Amino acid sequence: MNVPLRHGQIENFAHHSVYTDGRYIFDPFVSADPIPQSQYLKMLNEANPDGVSWRISSPEIPNEVNIDEIISNIKLNKGNF
User: What's the total number of domains in the chain?
Assistant: First the structure.
């Protein structure tokens, strides 16, 4: 998969991961700023005229995290690293 980089180069990746919030793509190889998803996909399609295979997968992350509960469940034992 060809990915246009920040400095105008195009790099061929066998695998390339990016982050998304569903609206923007966060790809530090391409830009320091978030890129609208539609613009990012258009850029990839232009760099890969024969097509590109991609998928968006979302990790299972709870909406709310109770940090006090997490800390209370951490047990430190002397000598265990």
Answer: 1
